[in-house]
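Case 167 in the screening queue. Each case pairs one protein sequence with one candidate compound; here the compound is nickel (II) ion. For every case the pipeline is the same: read the inputs, emit a complex structure as tokens, and attach any notable structural observations.

Predict complex for case 167.
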Amino acid sequence: MAILTILEYPDPRLSRVAQPVTAFDERLRTLVRDMSETMYAAAGVGLAAVQVDVLERVVVMDLSEEKNELRVFINPGIEWASAELESCEEGCLSVPGIYELVQRPAQVRIRAQDLQGARFELACTGTLAVCVQHEIDHLDGTVFVEHLSLLKQARVRAKLRKRRSRR
Ligand code: GNR
Ligand code: NI
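Case 167 output:
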């Protein structure tokens, strides 16, 4: 097992687009294991492979209180999104200490594959809907900050810069 390094915004590597997984093999299982361990160690509810500098469409997530309900989404995609939008305060392991309201479709239906390559669909509402959209964004090179106004984005970058200069 291994804890991977999480890239931090505005690292340009967070803007790259991940490619579909084609081999459901031992290498993929190892990546998912390392990503899960990294997510739990960082106390996050989700992690996308792009955040650990791996350009593959892999997401791990655990929204449970007890941290014992790991979900794995390989090649996830949004099948349907509601017209109704909802605002939720989001954070990101790649943007430490920043929490901002982001408006997204309130409900989505996604399709994905599991570790064996079997396809499944999932209807998502609430926190699950927010998180799957946040993670699929990462696979397409988008960090939640990029949903904010340009003024707010500049403020977030200034805050991160200031904070980093102090450590
Ligand atoms: O840990 C996380 N919490 C969170 C809170 C609100 C909306 C989205 C998230 S995802 C984030 C982990 C992360 O950065 N995943 O990419
Ligand atoms: Ni994130």
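Case 167 observations:
- Residues 150-166 form the longest helix (17 residues).
- The mean pLDDT is 98.
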